[in-house]
Design goal:
Layout: H1 3-25, H2 28-44, H3 46-62, H4 67-73, H5 77-92, E1 100-105, E2 111-118, E3 121-126, H6 131-142, E4 146-150, H7 156-172, E5 180-182, H8 189-194, E6 203-207, H9 210-219, E7 232-236, H10 242-254, E8 263-269, H11 273-286, E9 290-293, H12 295-302, E10 310-311, H13 314-317, E11 325-331, H14 334-344, E12 349-353, H15 357-366, E13 371-374, E14 394-395, E15 403-404, E16 411-418
Parallel strand pairs: 3-4, 3-6, 4-5, 7-8, 7-12, 8-11, 9-10, 9-11, 12-13
Antiparallel strand pairs: 1-2, 2-16, 14-15
Helix pairs in contact: 2-5, 2-7, 3-7, 5-6, 6-7, 10-11
Length: about 425
Amino acid sequence: MSTEIQKMMQDIGQRARSASRAMARASSEQKNQALLHIAKLVRQKADEIQKVNAADVERAKANGQDAAFVDRLTMTPKTIETMALGLEQIVSLEDPIGKVSALKKQTSGIELGQMRVPLGVIGIIYESRPNVTIDAAALCLKSGNAVILRGGSEAIDSNTLLAQIIQEGLVAATLPKDAVQVVTTTDRSAVGEMITMTQYIDVIVPRGGKSLIARLMAEARVPMIKHLDGICHTYIDADADLAMAVKVCDNAKTQRYAPCNAMETLLVNKDIAAKVLPELCKIYQDKGVELRVDAATRATLEAIGFKNLVDATEEDWQTEYLAPILSIKTVANIDEAMNHIERYGSKHTDAIITDNKLNADRFLREVDSASVMVNASTRFADGFEYGLGAEIGISNDKLHARGPVGLDGLTSLKYVVLGHGEIRT
């Protein structure tokens, strides 16, 4: 690592740590004012954002990036408006900072409670999605944190412009612009420095591909909130409503292919397979989805004339496609379905389609994933859809934060003691 990069990152870290003190004491009114100003600027500068983003997209295409990558990079009018709405939704959320809960008087006379406080300085390392710049900064801002954003080189122009917009909003609310900083170098050694800056950064949130997160898991000294894969399953139970199953499973796979909450494996109970698979798989094939199937599913579909099926391999059950490809397995019962999810799932999001309350309850209790759903598309596993305003990421860890990480996931609790001159005897 060059001395220049190291010095730059240390400077960013120092300024973020200094700004975090101001953010911790900022009022809800100040933070909301900043968020509303940013939302206003995002809408006002929508054309400029799209123009700058178009240059990033063309560069990515010229560099041979695949369609899923380009989709994540592209900012449309809908994407931009969703960012603005997310900012406004965060404004409407209750500010958790400074709230004291469970205040209780002890026998000694002291009063003991827990206060919700910011984590401090959060580092976000992400690839391709420039909307993360707004979403992450907004959540960190509302939760009283400072944030250092390191986006991918492919989105450098988009991220730089969005950071300028955010800083303008901070200044308008008399908050330090250093509370949100974007690392403007594309030198990858900046990431290596960032993930070891324990004196300045309290937690790292990686948003990117498997190779990035695997690298950070191996090298980071700063704690992380992360997930590695989004291998999401939907199980169609024997007692499922057929029309519902078709509608939900179509949406779970084809509403968008690139997000981590898109369904990658469909599990179907053998007793209902011949009733639901023909209609559902016709929809998939009509939309250009490649079907990778086990032997039982192939037999069901070929019996009624389906062609162009691919034999599923062991690797398919372990793959997050992020593309128009779907693995399908016919299972004997709910136990086989849950065993499959336990073996191959990534603990991200899994769903059951059923009218059987006993099976629904079992699925909710036994499937060990961050989001578990009954009769709903896995595509709902999202901070915006969960009413969090936006999300800083998805966590499939069990400590601190799990599932879509919103405001509470970016805070901690500390004990506060209110005394009246008590001493310990």
